[in-house]
Amino acid sequence: MxxxxxxxQWGDEGKGKVVDILSExxxxxxxxxxxxxxxxxxxxGDTKFALHLLPSGSVRPNIICVxxxxxxxxxxxxxxxxxxxxxxxxxxxxxxxxxxxxxIVLDYHKKEDQLREESLGKNxxxxxxxxxxxxxxxxxxxxxxxxxxxxxxLDALKAKLKSIVAYKNKIxxxxxNAEPIDADxxxxxxxxxxxxxxxxxxxxxxxxxxxxxxxxxILFEGAQGALLDLDHGTFPFVTSxxxxxxxxxxxxxxxxKVVDKFFGVVKAYSTRVGAGPFPTExxxxxxxxxxxxxxxxxxxxxxxxxxxxxxxxxxxxxAAISSIDAIAMMHLDTLAGLKExxxxxxxxxxxxxxxxxxxxxxxxxxxECVYETTExxxxxxxxxKDFNELPANAQKYVMLIEQITGKPxxxxxxxxKRNQIIYR
Length: 424
Ligand code: GDP
Ligand code: IMO
Ligand code: MG
Fold this sequence. Notes:
By secondary structure, the protein is of the alpha/beta class. Helices cover 33% and strands 20% of the residues. It is built from twelve helices and 20 strands. The strands form five sheets. The protein has a ten-stranded mixed β-sheet with strand order 9-7-5-2-10-1-11-15-19-20, with helices on both faces. Strands 14, 16, 17 and 18 form a four-stranded mixed β-sheet that branches. 49% of the residues are buried. Bound molecules: guanosine-5'-diphosphate, 6-O-phosphoryl inosine monophosphate (IMO) and magnesium ion (MG). Magnesium ion binds at residues 11-12, 38-40, 299.
């Protein structure tokens, strides 16, 4: 069985945990989009792993991990992640495969990301400054792009970097009055990347198609969330890749029809890091309660996450574009103890009610939420293993979300650990 995991909100839904749990029955886990902007947490016993580029299957020593063409790779970060796992006696040797067609994030991408965000002032996107946008822009622009395969011919790469860096330095000086960067320094780093990563680098499309023919079970791990999708999210406050499941086929060269089951991951409420519209945001003591109880601080940047009510309009939309069969809902435990509980079931835009999410930011920023108020519960549910043992109001909350979104919630998270999970 092949499964796909997609975040249905603005990222950080708990994809790492869900991938970790479902990968127990998989042979291969594939990361197909985004880059080190992602931060996927997996908790194994008392050990917490924060994975940025390595698929979350990495923590299970028998699983093959593949990073495909759609990912933008920060080689320095990836080498460090492999080393960090090594320190915990988890080796990636012979079980990590990186696409030769994946693009590489270099220092000038991170610098450009930072300079642009600074220059935008209050209009900034609030990126992770991991160089994601500039690297994808170079990919689309083609002429100044560097891919993993370029590390195989260092002489050619040296010449290429010279011309790219000359171009970038003109931009840095003219637009930002910034210090130039040194092409030789970047080249020396690339030599180090080549030494450390070429041993893992292959044609991953060929590898995946052969694996499918052999009947291997594959898990496709999405990064970010579908509301951050470049084409279908809350543009321009999005990331620079197709974070919905629509990014999967292009991001790894495998058609979506090989996927038997598409899981969408949500939190029992909503969070967002960075700028952009967030209709159900609770910038008040309710949001603070959720932030404190759910430990809502970024895995990658440590920034406090904005928190708010569950938005069923947004999730119905992202579930539709991501062809979701079933929902995994994390953090149900975090809602215990709230004095009130609401689910957004429709928007009112210019006096008219709609249940279809307007991905146009201007219309979305005019949306007023129409809420369904549900009853609260106080009990700690972090040790509950069976849906029927949840407080009646927690059960009703889940069933109301099923009713509004039309999708079954088949996995429920009641804590960060592997065993804090309920299957239905
Ligand atoms: P991802 O980017 O979607 O993988 O999510 P992150 O790892 O960035 O953020 C999810 C956070 O929630 C992590 O700290 C997880 O350990 C934690 N987590 C996951 N599932 C649950 C859950 O059901 N309950 C609680 N309390 N924490 C959870
Ligand atoms: P995971 O995989 C949450 C957000 C950033 C910013 C916007 C653009 O852990 O769910 P970028 O650096 O991509 O150009 O930033 O996207 N963002 C995420 N938010 N989780 C993520 O990944 C994110 N990756 C990017 O905060 O608003
Ligand atoms: Mg995250």
